[in-house]
Amino acid sequence: KDKADSNKSKDKADSNKSKDTSKVARVDEQEVSRQIDVIASKYLLWCLGPPIIGYAVYSLVYEKHKGWYSWALLSGVNVVYAVGFMMMTPQLFLNYKYKSVEHLPW
Description:
The chain is an all-alpha fold. The protein has two helices and no strands. The chain has helices at residues 2-62, 68-97. Helix 1 packs antiparallel against helix 2 (68-97). The radius of gyration is 26 Å and the shape is elongated.
C-alpha cells in the first residue's frame, strides 16, 4: 500500500512538473512574440514616419483645403491609417514565423 501511495504522489508530481513546464514554454513564447512585436513596430515607425510627415507637408503646400481644420483632420486620418497598418504588420510576420496559418486554404 505504501508503494502505491508513493507512486500516486510521484505521478502527481510528474504531472504538475509537466504542466509547469508547458506554462513556462508558453510564457517564453509570448515574451519572444512581444519582443519581435516591439522591434518590428520600431522599424516600421522609422520607415513610415517620414513619408507620413512628408505627405502632410506636401498636402499642406500643394493641395487645396477649406481651412486648417480640414488639413489637420486629413493628416490625422492618414496617421490613424498608417498606425493601423503598423500594428497589423508584425502580427503577419509572427503568423508566418510560427506557421500558424498553414491550415488556411490560400
